[in-house]
Structure formats: C-alpha cells, structure tokens
User: What shape does this take?
Amino acid sequence: MLILTCPYCGVTAEETEFHAGGEAHLKRFGPGSSDEDFETYLFMRENPKGVHFERWRHVYGCGKWFHAARCTTTLEVFGTYSAQVTEPPQEILDTISEKRPGWAWRDLA
Amino acid sequence: MSTRLATGGRLLNKEKAVRFTFNGQQMRGFEGDTLASALLANDQMLVGRSFKYHRPRGIVAAGAEEPNALVNLGVEGKFEPNQRATTTELFEGLLATSQNHWPSLEFDVGVINAKLARFMPAGFYYKMFIHPRPLWKHLYEPFIRQAAGLGQAPKGRDADTYEHFHAFCDVLVIGGGIAGLLAARSAAQAGARVLILEQTAHWGGRAPVDSGGIDGKPVDKTVDELVSELSDMPNVTMRTRTMGAGVYDHGYVLGYERLTDHAPETDGPRHRLWRIRAGHIITATGAIERPLSFAGNDVPGVMLASAVRDYVVNYGVSPGDRTVIVTNNDDAYRTAIALKAAGLDVPVILDARVLPADSPLMAEAKAAGIRVMMGHGVAKVLGGKRVTGVAVCLQAGEGAVREEFACDAVAMSGGWSPVVHLWSHCGGKLLWDNDFAMFRPDVDKAPTGADGAAFVSPAGAANGHFGLTEIVGDAHAMGHAAARATGYEVTPKPAPDATSFEEAPLAPVWLMPQGAGAPLRSKAWLDYQNDVKVSDVQLAAQEGFESVEHAKRYTTLGMATDQGKLSNINGLAILSGALNQPIPQTGTTTFRPPYTPISMGAIAGEARGKVFQPVRRTPMHAWHDENGANWEPVGHWRRPYAYVRSGESVHDAVMRETKNVRENLGLLDASTLGKLIVKGPDAGKFLDLLYTNMMSTLKPGKCRYGLMCSENGFLIDDGVVARIDEETFLCHTTTGGAERIHQHIEEWLQTEWWDMQVYVANVTEQYAQIAVVGPNARKALEALGGMDVSAETLGFMEWADGTLGGFKVRVYRISFSGELSYEIAVKASEGQAFWDALMTVGDALAVMPYGTEALHILRAEKGFIMIGDETDGTVIPQDLGLHWALSKKKDDYLGKRAQERTHMTDPERWRLVGLETVDGSVLPDGAYAMADGANENGQRTMQGRVTSSYHSPNLNRGIAMGLVLHGPERMGEVVAFPGTDGTTYQAKIVSPVFYDPEGEKQNV
Assistant: This one.
C-alpha cells in the first residue's frame, strides 16, 4: 500500500485515503477534432515499465486532484505536484533524471 | 511410546495441570504446553490422516511450519478447523478433534487410496476426471468433495469479536528470537521508536534450546536480561503472540495478534490485526529445518531433529525411549546430545556425510556413547501407525539394507532454510548459498520504498547466519543500520561476545539413499499436507512441467495451508535434479502473505453486522419504519419501497399508493436525491459543459431538466437544475448519484477547466425534501398556509422560497409523476416535523405516503426514463429520444464529440419505445426480443430488450419501456419476447407515454 503526499494540504497518507485517476497530462480533444485525435485522447494510454505520471485525488482528505510521478516497477515516488499544469514541473523532471538516467515517457525525457 | 519426562520443560509450569479433550478422550497437560506437546505427553502420536491417501500422520514439527497436526478446535460459535496443534497453547477445557478421517482416526476407509497410490500419480485429478464431461458434475465432483477437504467449515456465526489496530514506528522488528531482541536493542539505543513482534508466547526463539552462550552466560539468561532491558525503554513496544503476517509496499506490515486464543474465557477481542507503517523493517524470522526424503518419512514418530529437541528441552516430553537420528549436518547432533542428557537412548546417528575428521559436536556425541554411522542413511522406516524401527543403508547406494534398528522415533535433519517469506513478500531477492544448500536474502536487492531506499533488512538466521557468534553480530549491526536508515545517529557499541561450536559443513541430501529406486521414491514424502512424493515431482518434470510454478500447481506441492514451509526447497531440489539443472536456475515459487493463515475475523475486524456498511437514513427514516416501510436499498440509502398496511401484500400496497397519487394525494420522501450547489461567476458556463442542455440561459427562479453524459458520450445522470441567482445553481442528481456526480464535476473543474471561477458543494444531507403529489397537492399546501403556491405565482418548472405552515421552505414545482407536484425542501432537522404537518393537513385530502415502486410506476406511465433502468452505461440520450435536451447552440459539452462517432449516429441503434402486451400481462423485466436468423456464434439474433416493466393500476394493464431496433418507426408492430418460464410474450410497440400524453395533469 503506497504512501503519497498531497501537494495541496501537505498531508502524507496511506493509499486508501487517495483514489487513482489514470494517466496524467492528457490533452482534451472536443468537437471538431479528428477521429484519430479523439480516439487517442479517450482511449490510448501509456503502459510503461518504469517512470509514469498519474493523476490522483485526495478523496478522503482535501478532495483535490494532483499529479504523481512514480516508478511502476519499484513503486518509488519521485514527487507529487499540482494538477493545474499541462506538464510536470522542472524539479520533478530533474529528480527523475537523477534517479532514472535515460528515462522517457511520451515526449518527455 | 512418547511420554512426559520427570525432569525438563523450561516453558512448563508443572504446578498447574490443565485438562483437555482430544477426540472425546480426556487428557492432561501442564500450563505452558502446546496442544502438540500435550498430545505427545499423552502418547497421542497419531494426530490426523493425510489429505489424499489418508495415511496416518503424526506431529513433525514444534512450530508454525507443522504440516500434519491440524485439528478442529472448539464447538459451535467457537469452532475453528485447521488449527495447528504446535502453535495452539493449551488451556483448561480445550476441545480438539482430528480431521480428514472416516469413520475414525484409528480406522479409516480412505486409506484404500494409499493402496491405489500407484494409480493416483501427480495430476491425477486432471487426467482422470476430465472425461466424460457430464460425469464431472454428477459423479466425480461430489465424490471428491466428500473425500477431500481438511477439517469442516464452521456452521454457526462466529461468537468472538475482532479488531484492527493502527501502529507507527521507526523500526519494526519481526521475530523475538535472540536476533530480533538484539536488533531491537541496538535500534532502540539509538533512539528509534521500535516495535518488536514475536509469534509465540515466549521471547528468545530457539537459541535457548541450542547450545552456546553470550557474554559468558547461558542464552536464556541473556534473553531474560534483554527482555527486561527493552521493556524498560519508553521507545520500545513489545508484543508476543503477534505474528508479522505480511510485508507490503512502502513499509506497510500486517501483524496478527492472538489475544485470547490461549485463554478463551477472557473478555475482549480474540484477534487483533495490526496495520503497521514502519520506517524500516528487520526480519529476524529465524530458520526452518528441512526434512529428509527417505521412504516412510511420514510415519508418525518421524520428526524434525530440532522439534525433538524442543519437545525434550522446552516441554519435558520424550518422543520415545529410543530415537534414531538421521542427518546431513552437525545440528542434529545437538538433538542426540539433548536426548542422552534427558536419559533417553539414541541407538545410532546416521550421518549421510563422509567427513575427514570429527567436528566438536560429533566428538561430544561420540563421547556420550552414541554410535555414529557416517555415509549412512535410512533405507526405509518400519512401522505403520507409528515408528517401530529403521532399516539402514549406504547413502551412496540404492537402498540395500545393511542393518536394522528398533526405535520409537526418528529425528531427521536435512539442513536449515532461512525464513525468507517476509523478506520476499515485497520483492526482496534471494541468493543460493552453496555451503548451506539454501536460499538466503540478497541484501543488495532489498525491497525498496517510496524514496527508493531499501526498507527491509534480514537479521540472524533469517539472513543465513547460523552460528551464535554470527547471529549476534549480524543482528546487532542490522539494528544499528535500521536506526541510521530512519534518521537516528548511532554511536556503535561492540556486539555482545557469543560462543558457539565450530560446525562441519553439511552435505546436500535431497534423496536418501541417493540412488533410491521407484518403490522407495514413491514412499518418500516431500509435502506431507498435500501428499506429494518425490516420484510425483519427478513425474511432473518428465511430463513437461518444468517451470517451478507449473510443477507446483500440477503436483500441488507447497499449496496446502502450510504453503510448503517444509517442502519447498526439497521439492525444487528434486525438480532441479529431474531437469538436470542447478537449483538457483529452477528458482523458488512466489512467497505470498500471510506467513501462516490468519483468521477471517481478524481481517474483517469491527466491520461486521451493522457496521459492515453503515446505512444512510433520511430525517424521516424512523417514521417510515414505524409505518410499514418495506425497505429497498438504493446506494447506501434505505428507501421505502412501499408502506404495507396490515392484511395487505407488498404488491397491494404498491397498487394502492400508485392509484392514490393519481386520484388524491401522495407524499414521497425525496431527501435522498442528490443536491449540489454550483456557484461562482463562471457557474453557468461550467454547467453548459457538464450538461447536454443549455443551463446558462436559465433565469433565476426557473428550473430545467438536464442530462449529463460522460466524455465517452453515454448518459450518466439526470435531474432538475434550479437557478437560485445569477451565480448560483442547485443541481439535483439521482439518489445513488450525488457522490459520484459531485466527484465527476470536481474532476472536470479541477483537472480541465481549472481557470473557471466555480465552487461546488454537496448539500444533499442538509435538506429534507418531500414531494407533495396529486390533484390535492395545492390544497394541502394552502391548508398549511403561507406562501402563494397558485399556478399564476408558482408556475410549472419554477421554484420559490417562502414559508408553509411556519416552516422555512424552498418549493420546486417539478413533477416526476405527471401530476400536480411540489417538491419542498426544508432544513434536515425540520424534515420530520414538516412531514408530520403535511400528513395532518393531508388527512382530509386522502393523503398516503408512497414508496419507490409507486414512484417508478408513475414515471413509467408517463414515459420518463430512469437512470439505471433505461440506461446501463451503453445508452446515449439519442437512443432515448431525448434530442430536445441536446443543445444545438453549444460548441462543446461533455459527450458531444463522442456522440458524433459513426457508431453513435448509427440508425441501427436500439431506441426507446413503449411496449404493451397484447393480453395485458406484465413483460418480464430484461427480456429480449427475438428476430429471425442467428449471429456468427450461432446465437439467435435479437432486436431489442425490456428496460422497465410494471403493472399499471391506473391503466389496469402491463406497461413497459424498451429499446428496440428501429423502434420509433415500428409503432403498432407486435414483437415476441421469450420469458425464462418457457412462455413467449407478444407485445405491441407503442409510444412510451402511456398516461396523459398532453401533460395536462401536471400543468394546472
């Protein structure tokens, strides 16, 4: 059972206090988008062995959504950060680069 | 025969006799006994029958690894099967019965299976019972179920209580042996908060039984001093009878405390599940001795050498006057020496090794006058229900008998395996150690936590150290390292000075004798509990089950309740031998929690009965209950399905209520409907994205029915939205939907449209809401007195704040029944009083409360959809003819893009219609309409299904709604719906609005 820190209220808590919300940093495609873009947005997901960016919600706490950068094999947590961003903050990327040299995720590296 | 010795028994209180019953026979033990030691003291060597062949089985071990001595304990509400006698502490009045035999333990008919053993090889069930198929259900399965199974399932409700306990510590030490105690001390001395768990009732583990000393003192003295030192430290918590059951991600550990198993008359919970978060975990879980694989190694009286020593030293129990020792290592000599010291006879030590010189332990045994035969082993054990002797052969040979020894017991030792279970649970890797022929933790590949650092360290024997000197040094250092890992500064002190014997290396022996032929191999047991023999594993390998995981499942090796604690290493060594590959290449199966079985009660904890899932109650719940409510669960709520009067069936009540709403006046407790406040400068814009309709154009004071879709286009909820003021909307959701829709809204607000200035609050439970419905509804409100509720002032789909009968109310003129209807919200605290007031004024207006089923019938008569009936997660608004609720003016709303996909615009989608049975009967809910032809799987083609179906008392006929291929274009056509009862219903496709199609009744 994971331990995560909510970046909003600062509480470090058990996984049961949170709810996982799938892949982070999806770009929404609405009316007017191509079938391919819409399909990718709605259904296509990363399934990495290693570095991953996920959405979580502090559902039994402050109720806020946030992002977590995590390793899917070792379950190491590189950091959590605001959900109100379109890409991970530089310090998270730096932490990952330091711990997992050569990592890549979508177009991030 | 096994018996109680006059002397010895360091764990016993011989002042206090304890009476107990085994298979109806009165027996006597002492305080401090386990059930196993007490049974042995009463010469009860035979304790059960094996699972498959019903062979007589006796006690093999003295601890958690015991495979055979499983008993039923207790009666009725305290009954529990499969309890290990070796870990069951004796108490006054204990009742135990043996398992897996019929008609009796001494005489068992299932033993015929043993005679047929030749015909029941590995994979027997897979091979034998597969054909012919129909026989499986009626013949094979009932037969196997009758013959198989350990113990009996409890029949009554568990009379005991259980609890959960949350604990936090810097360093968790699992195992209270000498290693655990020392590790705990070094961590605690550095200031770390330490929790130490020991699964038995005693500290010190097995070191006090074995030879050696620490700081010039005997080990048990050191243990006493350590325990007293630790108990005095404020930063140390100690728990005996508490097993570390499992290690999980990020330092989460489950502990299993048996509070009253040893004293069942004590008050309080029986078991406690510890839910621990530890900064660092030390697994000081010791090691388990391995059996040797020789013919007849399962005859009662054949025991682990360490267990024999435990029974003699700890419990003062002799397993027999004459015990033959068979070993491949030095440790078993300790047993020989202990037996001699207790005045018992050891006719011979059979040592499979050939060594150039005697080790100190060997020399000591020889000096005690014990005959040692090097290079020898057991050809076979003599005896059936108990050992009568052993036939001796050369280990290097094929089993030619050179000599026979009469004896009552055989003490075997195949070497030791560290208990690596807890190390491995969360991903700790193992190394093969050639010197000790065992897997040990690879300390460089430890489980890692949230920060990427190792969070488990093994210590002592669990780390593959066996000499007392090594154990003490390792544990001491691991305790320091754990304290350091959790941020404490360590001033290292030297480890205590331990002395132990220099031991000669062991020789791996996986089969005895090494050239044993088929007859011997098919009597050499690996897994006692699941009856798996050397020959079974070899057959599995021969048949191609080469992966250890496959061989395990094919032979069931290690799959019994002991999870292969004794059998795993021996089994995979045999498998490796059969595959002609080194053991590490074969690898181990996966170690999974819990270490030994834990009770279901402990897992459930307090969550049983009423607290298993708390029920949500409306403010009027008690009134409903007192007035005949037949309850229906809706989400976590309970809603009255109908209010049943005396002499009435539930169906009668539903019919009466439904008619009365149309004819007079009905009251519905609608408090469960979700109520979400959406507020802020951007609230209208935000709701335009959430709902398919346009909400931003709604005027304050007005209501609008809205639909919500998922981004995938499917309908997820509906409800009436009221605009309170320019910036405030109140959104009603379905009863089960409030939390789900609130989360859905929050998700989009926080993660996609976070720039919008909107706040959402769930106020569902802040209000009691009552629907006042029927032709007399307005009269009832007028009788209460207060605000103007006339059609002119409060029109259909409008709302107003005011007072009624002195209550502050908010009145919504909305209708889910097609009748004149007001939904009135009051403060939750005034819900019951307002309900009472309505019932009082309603008395003269023929008021009746009505339940959810009447609500359903009323809405179905009007063709109103119900989320969850007409929708199932695959239905879009277009399917339900709700095009009018899909705004054409908006560029975007959730689901809009998805609904443009070809499959969503396909004219072949089934669409909503009304269905009227030709004979007026009620269509079965969920029935499918057949069409001609079959699909590619040979299944009959379908052309629709029933989504809602009721008997309408107002129309006095069955009415239904359904989704039908080309439905709205096929009005008047009759379609066939087969029921599950063999009859086929003929139903005509009609408009879904059965009652008052012009909507005149609600708009008055």
About this structure: The longest strand of chain A covers residues 51-57. Chain A has one domain: 3-99. The mean pLDDT of chain A is 96.
